[in-house]
Amino acid sequence: MQKEKRITKMRYYFAPLEGITGYVYRNVHHRHFPGTDRYYMPFVAPNYTKHFKTREKQDVAPENNTGLTAVPQVLSNKADEALWAIFELAALGYEEVNLNLGCPMPTVARKKKGSGLLKYTDELDAYLDGVFRGIEARTSDMPPVRVSVKTRLGTDSTDEADALIRIYNRYPISELIVHPRCQKDLYRGTPDQEAFLHVWQNSVNPVVYNGDIRTPEDVKKICKACEETVVHSGDAGQPNRAVIGRDGTAKAPDRAVIGHSGTAKMLDRVMIGRGLLADPSLVRQCQGGSPITNEELAAFHEELYQRFDETLPGTKVVLSHMKELWFYMGNLFADGEKYLKEIRRAGNRTQYEAAVRVMLSVCSLKR
Q1: Does the reported pTM lie above 0.70?
Q2: Within 10 Å of residue 140's Cβ, how many Cβ atoms?
């Protein structure tokens, strides 16, 4: 009998979420639920001042990111400002910096940043050209640094993906993290799997899938879909579409689709955001482990609450952070809406703590 294919060798990345997944959250999550391969930081946004904000300095400080692999992210549309940030981060010891071309929020997109830059393909190309030329020209005393890209597949439509992949293929991007929605979708609807598969098949750079992974089955489904995009012929697999090369022209398949053995290369890395916020044990489950228990969730919540209390300015801010987390974690419970309302209504620590105690003791986790 043929054994079922396992996904234990999959690499799992934690997507950044502004205001939540800062260094406090990353460290607490890693202590309670080890197994995530990389944590991507909420973006830093360099500007003409060439200075990081205090919050940004705290988040990227090496002493706040020990014991885990953290990857800083840069949001910009100007190569000189991005390069300044990249080299500052490399000097701190970071070996990879991620360029944010995926943020869909209107306040960001209106400034031609994040996924708002994607419709301006000439400007996007010039931005990436400036960044990679600058890295190539760095002096010998500067530490080496890889540059990855997190992107959506268009501003108005994922039909823009073809033009984008032709641009991305011109540059030595260490990983292309693809969320297959367009900017205007925000997080509505479902990711465009067909558009992702086209990018996965045609990218000359390693591709990471990101988008609506909430269960281990979701990982298996996207892996299977990638496998099925390759049509096998004889001893070697042949893709059903031509690969777009670095010069923008169609070419024969390379290792982006065909592995060293001549068989189809498997998707081997995914990024998870809201799914991990909702269930901190999701990576463990994807690796074949057990679901989260009430006791684990209580311990995770307690340390996170305590650490936020130590690092955030005042009760109002602390409770705001915790309530935002419960917006996601509340989905763990089969019968928790009544108690979630009490958490949302809590106006002080006493009310909040009482509501959480009841939630954790009365409600049952979904199974």
Answers
A1: yes
A2: 4
